[in-house]
Fold this protein.
Amino acid sequence: MKLAIITGADGGMGTEITRAVATAGYKIIMACYRPEKAERVKDMLVHDTGNPYIEVLGIDLASLASVAAFAERMLKRGDTVSLLMNNAGTMSNHLMQTEDGLERTVAVNYVAPFLLTMRLLPLMGKGSRIVNMVSCTYSLGHITSDFFSCGKSGSFWRIPIYSNTKLALWLFTRELSERVKDSGITVNAADPGIVSTNIIRMDMWFDKLTDWFFRPCIRTPKEGAATAIHLLLDEEVSEVTGQMFASCKPKKVKDKFMNHPQAKQLWEDTEKYIEQLRLEESII
């Protein structure tokens, strides 16, 4: 039975992605921050899909040690990973730095998926698919010298920082797709559109106005998850790599983002940042 690993599998879109992958007959690892909540979602999905091969494992994407420990557990099991869905995401409302010195949104949305993916690559081979959940806001992103520690230069503002992390995740998608293309592993990005999830908060004065303005465009978690599910499961995209999809179709991405001048440097900087933490295993 093929194995799928899905981060944030108990969230709105994560639940729908897990449901579809379970229905397709995969064994699933739900990699979740709150295992107790995830167990309840798992029980529902086992009942709904009839697939008993769904397991919950805890992971804290804000802790690179936790990510490394999760990956090590998978490596010791030795099961081939057919699908890796980097779905989990967050948007911090004020500056919070993790135990690793990373701005929390940067850690969860970008550095943790980078580390997890790189650590799990030895378990993947021809036909394996990696899908990263990006956002339409990637095109507003800028990677500055303060990216890792603060998310952006200047004062804290959650939306630009979120956009910066999604740009970084897209650049990782592009760069990784080139590095593994000869192995038969595909790497793509899913843009879910504006989705009604827990990331949409009502903490700032303008949030209610923004919610009212965008409400006609907001998708349900099921609608938002559709593109990621398409990239994970559909045969017609089994050999597509290094692309961004939206509404289950290839998305036209400007050349400056397809061949971004910072892509390779960001990769190198991320490797150096992780290596200086002296985690148990090298990602190289």
Q: What stands out?
A: The CA atoms of residues 130 and 187 lie 5 Å apart. The beta strands are 3-7, 27-32, 54-58, 81-86, 129-133, 186-191, 244-246, 249-250.
